[in-house]
Design brief:
The structure is a single chain. This protein has four helices and no strands. With about 180 residues, it is an all-alpha fold. The radius of gyration is 67 Å and the shape is rod-shaped. The mean pLDDT is about 85. Belongs to the ATPase B chain family. One of its GO terms (cellular component) is chloroplast thylakoid membrane. Pfam families: ATP-synt_B. InterPro entries: ATP_synth_b/b'su_bac/chlpt.
Length: about 180
Amino acid sequence: MENNFQVFRLISENFSEVSHSIGLNSDFLEANVLNIMLLLFGLIYVLKQFLGSLLTIRQEKVIFAISECEERLQQANNRLLESEKQLEQTQLVITQVLNDAEITAQKVRQSILDKGKIDVEKLIGASKASIVVAENQINQQIKQKITALAIQKVSSQLKAQVDTTMQAKIIDSSIIKLRGDI
């Protein structure tokens, strides 16, 4: 750090000596001010056309690039508007499809419910018919059973009441009836 201070001190001492030697020279010919001015004006005159044409070309390129960018921007905006319209149309179509799907689902659900009701009614009708058939069969069986029991009872009563003489009389009367029919 001390070295840095020494360096700054040396520079400041030398600067004060140099500043006495810098000054404005009032002799134009000796200072070459005239030559420098002529050279500067000559360069400006010569380079004006060259640089002007370069700058004009550059300006035309920049203007062309800007107009091309503006044209592309306009095309992009047009495509954006078209895409937004297509998006709106697509959303409308999607909404319509969803509505149609919902209506179709409701119709299918209702038709399934209606078919289920019809099937249940058919099952109820078939059940009632089978119950009626079963009742008829049971009634028929009961009648047959009652008839069989009645015949059995009458038969057992007849066996108990009918003896051999009575059997002979019944057989004889049956034979007589058969002769009369013949």
